[in-house]
Amino acid sequence: MLKHGRSYPRKKSWTMRYLRWLQEQRFDHPAHQIALQEMVEAVRVSKERVERLERVIEEFVPTWSLAPIVWALQTLRGIDLIVAVTFVTEVGDASRFESPRKLMGYLGLVPGERSTGETVRRGGITKAGNGRVRHMLVESAWTYRHPPKIGKAKLYRLEQAPPKVREIAWKAQSRLTARYRMLSARGKRTTVVCTAIARELVGFMWAVAREARAT
Fold first, then answer.
1. pTM above the 0.85 mark?
2. Quick one: DSSP state of residue 127?
3. What is the mean pLDDT of residues 150-173?
């Protein structure tokens, strides 16, 4: 669209309003109009497929033995149904890890170390373990750039959760939003900040999983 001098006047793209705006665009050359309509239709079909699969997943989760963990994880900011299901599917019962640090290491979110004599140097994360889950959690960490807030969907999850899980979820949001601001203020790159937040988020997910299994 930018090549043709078309710029969406609002901030958020790929919303229903944005798709309507795309549908309203008209080009003089038929080939341009056809290309636009084909791309818009491809997005619509893909979106419907994702929504259909999400409904199927939501339908089957209640029959799963680990369903309590899936529901409890969704009290955490940045963790929706798909992230929670993917995490539990790939990791299993997170409470099986004896400590949050073990789970962080399993997901490759701990810093690597190089030792030379008495000198120990810390590097980037090891990136060992499950890359799919690690990538999703780093994406989830991006939501902590905003101040603490509980939206309608998250409020519903919190109301259904045990008191201890609610307490952990709010503690996570308060701490991680503050830490995000602090690291950003220090001039850290966004990727570094999100990775650090994802690492701590895993610790809260571990705590939530333990509480969910205990209730």
1. no
2. -
3. 93
